[in-house]
């Protein structure tokens, strides 16, 4: 799992609060409240550290009692946590905290669906760089919470040679050779045909990505893989077809939908007690 490093929560809050929460300001500063967060649908809980950080940034005295653990699968109607503290702080932080929690839980929930779909095959499901801007590391953390795995984090920690890189370098062999000279990080080559697969295999990268291969061509590539290079399938992967792809013998399947096609989990925060 990617190391958990919280971003600057103040940037998220500034986006919503701006010069001040003029609605929450109608509530006297002395008013205290208790609240609950409930999920209206089944989900995998992810994002507790971000949720906590929002309220702690606003008011260190806000207390949060979680009733489910990070990575837990919970059913619709489950109370996720109880909060207590300044009513103003709870009201001001509500939307930002829920936005983060619903987005990261959505990512983890989708990841679990894909992880469950390949269970027992030995194939690992990977994320991609198709993430929400500003939430790259958070979403990759959520992918791991859901039981899938991280591909490279960015352009700096892994080399993935694609069609345009190959054209610019002159050939697959030249691109791999130049990549080896450039860095010691893992080198991966994306190929779109069995002919390109043979050329890539001869160049001996660390991994070959089979982009939009048919099942038959994947099986052929697995059988041809005499050099024992890691194989990764990618392109048009769905919950309906992923099991068959995993069973071809590829080592990895990368799926952009883990992070880019998510639908936020339906969460609700309700104040249930107010004291002056």
Descriptive terms for the model:
four-stranded antiparallel sheet; elongated
Structure description:
The chain is of the alpha/beta class and 276 residues long. It has helices at 9-17, 48-58, 87-117, 136-145, 163-169, 172-182, 194-203, 215-224, 242-246, 257-260; strands spanning 32-39, 43-44, 63-66, 73-74, 79-86, 124-126, 159-161, 187-191, 207-211, 230-234, 252-254, 267-275. The strands form three sheets. Strands 6-11-10-9-8-7 form a six-stranded parallel sheet. The radius of gyration is 23 Å and the shape is elongated.
Give me the side-by-side strand order of the main sheet: 6-11-10-9-8-7
Radius of gyration: 23 Å
- Uncertain runs: none
Helix-strand pattern? HEEHEEEHEHEHHEHEHEHEHE
- Determine the strand fraction and express it as a percent band: 15-25%
Largest sheet: 6 strands, parallel
What is shown here, in short?
The protein is of the alpha/beta class. The protein contains ten helices and twelve strands. Helix 2 (48-58) packs antiparallel against helix 3 (87-117) and helix 3 crosses helix 4.
How does the SSE layout of this entry go?
Blueprint (H helix, E strand, L loop, with lengths): L8 H9 L14 E8 L3 E2 L3 H11 L4 E4 L6 E2 L4 E8 H31 L6 E3 L9 H10 L13 E3 L1 H7 L2 H11 L4 E5 L2 H10 L3 E5 L3 H10 L5 E5 L7 H5 L5 E3 L2 H4 L6 E9 L1
Parallel strand pairs: 6-11, 7-8, 8-9, 9-10, 10-11
Antiparallel strand pairs: 1-5, 1-12, 2-4, 3-5
């Amino acid at each position: 799992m990617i190391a958990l490093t919280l971003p600057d929560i103040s940037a998220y809050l500034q986006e919503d609060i701006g010069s001040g929460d003029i609605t929450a300001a109608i509530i006297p500063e002395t008013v205290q409240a208790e609240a609950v967060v409930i999920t209206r649908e089944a989900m995998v809980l992810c994002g507790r550290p971000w949720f906590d950080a929002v309220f702690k940034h606003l008011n260190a005295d806000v207390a949060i009692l979680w009733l489910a653990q990070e990575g837990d699968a919970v059913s619709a109607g489950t109370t996720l946590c109880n909060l207590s503290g300044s009513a103003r702080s709870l009201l001001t932080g509500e939307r930002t905290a829920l936005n983060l929690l619903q987005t990261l839980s959505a990512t983890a929930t989708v990841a679990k669906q894909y992880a469950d779909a390949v269970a027992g095959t030995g194939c690992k499901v990977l994320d991609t760089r198709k993430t929400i801007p500003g939430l790259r590391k958070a979403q990759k953390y959520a992918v791991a919470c859901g039981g899938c795995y991280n591909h490279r984090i960015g352009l700096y920690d892994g080399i993935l040679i694609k069609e345009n890189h190959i054209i610019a370098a002159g050939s697959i062999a030249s691109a791999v050779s130049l990549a080896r000279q450039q860095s010691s990080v893992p080198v991966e080559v994306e190929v779109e045909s069995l002919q390109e697969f043979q050329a890539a295999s001869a160049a001996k990268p660390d991994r070959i990505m089979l982009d939009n291969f048919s099942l038959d061509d994947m099986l052929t590539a697995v059988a041809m893989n005499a050099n024992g290079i890691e194989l990764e399938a990618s392109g048009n992967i769905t919950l309906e077809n992923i099991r068959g792809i995993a069973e071809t013998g590829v080592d990895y399947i990368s799926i952009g939908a883990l992070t880019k096609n998510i639908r936020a989990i339906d969460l609700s925060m309700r104040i249930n007690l107010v004291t002056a």
